[in-house]
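**User:** You know discrete backbone vocabularies at least as well as I do. Would you mind producing a protein record, from residues through to fold? Write it directly below this note and I will take it from there.

**Assistant:**
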Amino acid sequence: MATLPPHRLLQHFIKEIASTRRRSLISSSSSAFNGLSNCHHRFFSSSSSSSSLRQPTSSDVTYFRSILRPNQIITTLHHEDDDSSSSNSHNDKTETEALLHRYNIDWTHRYHGQSTLLLKPSSTHQVSSILSYCHSHYLPIVTQGGNTSLCGGATPSSNSNNNEIILSMEGMNRIHSFNTFNGILVVDAGCLLQTLQEYTSSSNNNNQHLFPLDIGSKGSCQIGGNVSTNAGGGYFYRFGGLHSTVVGMEVVLPEDGRVLRLNLHDDNTADDDENEGYNNNNNSSNNNNNNGRKYGCHRKDNTGYDLKHLFIGAEGTLGVITKVAVACPPLPSSKNVALLVCDSYSAVLKVLDASKRELGEILSAMELMDWQTLSLVRQNHTGGNEDETAMLLDEMLAFTTCQASTRRPLYLLVETQGSNSEHDNAKMNTFLGQLYESSIINNGYLATDSRKMNSFWNIREGCNPSVARSGYVYKYDVSVPIEEYMEIAAEVEATLLSLSTNNDKRFSETKVCVWGHLADGNAHINVVTPGVFQKDETLASLVDDAVYGSVLKRRGSISAEHGIGQSKVDILEKIKDESVMNVMVQMKRLFDPHGIMNPGKVLHT
């Protein structure tokens, strides 16, 4: 046993307890449904004043210079203090344009803004002053976190003539308090998700905790952006969404710069001190637990309307989130991660059912990847051919080489978290053994230490960047009935194949990749054009109709966790109940009467 490669330990174990194997394959297909083309288009404008929005000018820059430091303003606009005769002015402008370009383009390179002014506030007071001024002067704003949105929600609108001001939250990155008794962490909106994960689990704390959100972009996304888009992630099944874990919030409203503290009680009446709390850029002695004395926050607060839920998922269209209080559970002392290979989706459903019954309370994540996706992960793997991850990927993919192309396997990542390693290990081993003995899984790999667990998760988190490096990606984030999870991809493939001709191979050469959070029915469907990195409008329209039509006829959702942004505004208006849309418009007008907040996102403005 000890001489086997670590990732083969489970395979050796389950072969010992099972002498026979049975395989089953259930194929299902259905024709694509182009229901969207017949939808009646309704236009919902959120503000009659949106047409009055204007571009920022040098006089606006002059005002912002009165409330912000020079390094908090990046602009190509000339202002009164400029020395235009300087020999370095041309070079400075070129450098500024290059810096602004970074904030004007999203990470997928699909959305390009034209903003000429970027502001980096470092306190709630500064955000309040900025919003109040912009409201009075009809200046549009897009609040930006890590700019990792997959729907263009944090990028200035591509078709806007207003040149929105970018309000970057990266300067507001302080950890204010962490109460280990109730597990509530209070932080600035600009804190990186990975920083919060590391802070709560750090051995410097008396009691280690787990930050209840984990997504692939954790190294660059910010918690304010996560909350604004209602990000889901792999732990949604275990801990619920941000509507469940966010217990308090500080928000600034645009009309008068009013600050709302929602179940977040400030014991300090003074304005934000930039040196107070733990700053992500400064590993000082302030990085400690002060038991939440500065900000009081409770898990239960039943005093009137729970307004914080209006801003979770609002994508910065109602106000600016400046602080967040998140309830964190204790850090599990026991963890197991397994990668499983299934011959069919019917087998996947059996694994899901067995995991809920056998693993029960310790099941924390159930992630699915199809063969097409895993092939691109292997193709774009940056390690050498002899490293452990590469060999594991090769072995997982090798099964297909001896099977018919219609029998491509599906892959599952199963994670458990608990407090008793002996108990949890026994449950996982029993679960895996039963699956193999009953021929539900074709193969399996069990991580034996934290390094291998991270390696397994890196494979799953490598899906998104791998398809992006392969070609242009038409991305879809949908919720569907779990039993029909893979049928949408099959319908899209059938549609594309039917459109292919001898003279036009665009459709047949595309690859439909599927991965996602199986346990909560969230599928990420990605249609990739290998080697082609430019958008094909004809293909985009056809794929939109195929995907959304397939989702809607199953009464699913066109956005499970990525939001609406600027990519789904039109489709939202086509499918959302008219009475619901009208209430959303009224709410937008109430909080943002001039329509300055993230115009063109979620609702037309």
Remarks:
- Residues 1-35, 281-293, 401-405 have pLDDT under 50 and may be disordered.
- The two ends are 64 Å apart (CA to CA).
- The first helix runs from residue 9 to 17.
